[in-house]
Amino acid sequence: NGSSENRRKIAEYAQLREDRIAAVRGRLNTSKGDLLDEIRSSILSKNLLELIGEMLVLFNEGHISRRTLCFCFISQEMTFMSGIFESKSFAEALQKEEVTAEEALDAYIWKALQLHEKFNCAAEFLIEAFDEAKKLDDVWHGKTNKPPLFGIPFSVKSNFNVKGYDCSLSLAKFLGKPVSSDCSFIVHLRSLGAIPFVTTNVPQALLSYVCSSAVYGTTANPYDPGRTPGGSSGGECVLCAAGGTVFGIGTDLAGSLRIPAAMCGLVTLKPTESRFVIRESFTGLPGRGRMGFSCGYFTRTVKEQKLLLKYTYGNENYIKEIPQMVPLPLNEKQIGIVKGRKLRIGYYIDDGFLVPIPACSRAVSETIEALENMGHETVLFEIPNMDRASALFFKNIMPDRGAFCNYLFSNEPLSPFIRLFALMLKVPVCIRWFAGWILKMISPQMSTVCSSYVKDLSDLRRTQEMTDDFRAEVLTAFHFLIAFSFLVPAVPHKYPSRMTFCAFATGLYNMLDFPSAVVPTGFWPVAANKSAGLPLAVQIVALPFHEEDCLAVMEIVEELWEKRNLARKGSFSKLNLAQFLRYFPCEKMNEKKY
User: Where in the numbering of this chain does the Amidase domain appear (predicted)?
Assistant: First the structure.
């Protein structure tokens, strides 16, 4: 239950947080928000596209304001599954002042507040965003040279420093310690005109893919509230997937971008570590072994990823502040060149350590089949010496045998979904060794997890040497690779603590420091254990500093799955409607009208 002091701090912070949310609600101008109730009712009796058309007519005839139209378009009830409005067209509307920065911010904060009530995805709403939006409108009014992301609201994973707010990692020991400066990533996006307006929930100490803590509670998956959205960027993914932000930013040490993106149906790209470097954030495990720590974006499409990365990689002004970042801008021409030729792509259905469930395997096999039909060559790939690779991963992730993690969890009230993991960290080395020996014949995977720990400084040196050798071996093995994004789709909240070893599926490419992305493949219509309709995805891997190659394959895969899903299910199927209704749980919709 944690110390009484930490329980007291959590209670005091909870009240402070509620007061801050109330203050944000007070600043929110929702004078036109009541129209959303009318729209909500109208959707029950009208076709979605007809309704959007009617709203545009009303706007053009002057019957409703830009503000109302903005509320309507951004409201997830109208944009979910439609694929009509992308952030680029929204950015163009802001550039042309068809929508003001204040209007956009109001609409997104309104939506984010609704989603937070339903899914518990937000940590803090940033009241300063209102003044930022007003200042942007005042400074840039009537000008044509606005910054490229002018007025676009975005969300922030709460392990990034935001000036004046705690960077607590959902731990009581770090509450009441507001930071004095912003993360360099946030500073950079502000310089491009974007507005941070909310920070999002993370698991305690960032050490799980169940997004739960005693400080903020448990975040629910938008497709099934009884399941996890993944982690550690869980709150960020929920808000983005449900339409509460234009894009989100997160970090990845062992899959914290890719796991939640796969479980929430989003696009993300984990770059090579030094392709984009940040300052003023918490990396999760400072002093880690050979594990690449990367930052990236959550978007709905690959097109949006490219747009954002264009302004991020190799930016001259950013490099002046962060000189250790590689000065390598995004090469859009290279993306086009790769897309225009027939490729030789490696793939695997299972990695030799754990076997994914059939739905995740089918996502890979159907992707490979479609690529072959397009004329690309595919080659079955086997990760060399998987036993050694998995042991190296678990030794690199915690070279101190979990001592720092034990410090983070010490005297902390723990979420019930985190307790088992925290307990496992306290198991003495002698018991771990014995358990590893016993488990060899029962579960080689669990035996590897138990017995893979750094014994002494000499072993640490050997571990780093072997990791470098393994990386050099894999560097010559492939150029493109497609694999399952994760072993399972979104699972109930209680399971991640029992399945920590699953992180190897994504963490392998942090250890290799290869760029690795996730692209959704749709929603599987038939699955066991009530998991039908959950998002599935594939993982796409390229060589270090070849993010352009990764993006090219991402675009190819996204396009082929868009065609397959349209042919398979139509533009608005009963399955899509079932997902739509989860955001819209009022009255029973008449499916025939859709």
Answer: 103-551
